[in-house]
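Data card: per-record layout.
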Amino acid sequence: MSDDSPDPAPQNPAEFTGKFTLGDGSPGAGLPVRVEAIDVTSESSDESELTTLGTAVTAADGTWKVALPATLPDDVRQAAAANGGAINAVAHVDGQTGSGQVMRGTDFVVAAPASAPATARALVASAAEDDAPSKLRPVTDAMGQESEQPNEVQTAYSWASRDELNSLDTLGERALPEYQSDTSGIPQGDPFIVKGVDTKSMKVHPMDGGCDKTKSKVIDTQIRYTAVVEGHAAWDSKASVDYDTKMSTNVEIAVKTGSNWTIEGSATLGSAMSVTTGYTNMGPHFAKQWRVPIEYKKIRETWKCNYGKNTYYRYRIQGGKYKVPNSGAVGKYGKDVRNKDGSAGYYKSPASHRAWVARGSYFQLTKNRSTKFSGAVSTFGIKLGASTQYDKDHKQRITAGSKTNARHDIWGKNDKVSGKPGVFYSF
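The structure for this 427-residue chain is written out next.
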């Protein structure tokens, strides 16, 4: 696959788009939407106001869209240049039920101007494929004050941290739980029930006075090794993966509403790396993910509603730069994924997904995007997913040996290997 140019995006990459629903899945219609750039949060300890990129009102089906400004604000333009051309943003809707319960919907979205590199536009398309409708969730009384943040000893007891100790990939592409706790197992109960009242199906109308712009402050950072690609080599073959020159990955963002964390979209990480990392000619009977160090930020958000009378606090976890820790590895082997190779997987796969590699030759993916790793990283006690855009700098490769007593078969997970397989496996 020598054509390393990304496929064109199925929608206009210069638009932020999304859909908001009530807790029961019915449309969140007629609600004002504010879109704010999130990569402009200061690296210092100072609180800063997010830059508004546009506003809209949700349609009858809950959908909305906001075009990028013709001229980007200077801080957004600079952040986009440092991020490979992609612009990460958050879309908010705020409303109230008839009983006065405040509800907030959040969706992290990405766009890229027409002048952005093709890889950035492809990452926008990848993010759009994963962007599920976002629910309006109740704003609880606990959000009226700052929360005490758990330390690493406490987050070691979370479901995400415990799963990270497993050397095998047990999640694959399975959807993560809707709610996570950063200090214990999967939360129980229904977060939509507030003071004994179920808010899921309550009609939500625009809030009198609305809510103002979001202010944000970085309160903690962690460097965590994140799965960005994986290679497979079964019988008489070698696997290689490359993650070179620049980042090209979408990583999910988690937000804490009340006591629970939820995934609400993703951020595109396209910053320059100026390094080469990966593994070469590993095998036979080898299959592992490759992880790179990414700095994650825990950010406190503050906003005011009801003509400034009510102040609320919320927290988000967001990936950022490739950053090697002091005396740390530039990349690490991740989880073992050999269970996906071999005869069982091959014979269960659609015949159209299968192909073979001639002895002494190789095959590699350099186009479209990888499969999405649900368990790509655990940070601050929360599990996030990620996927990577294949191109000339990000590849999965298999090299066949010279033995003649069998054929080197491969198959694509999601499609034929010349289509959009996401990843290919080996037999």
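Known properties of this structure: Residues 118-130 form the longest helix (13 residues). Confidence is low (pLDDT under 50) at residues 1-9.

See the next section for split statistics.
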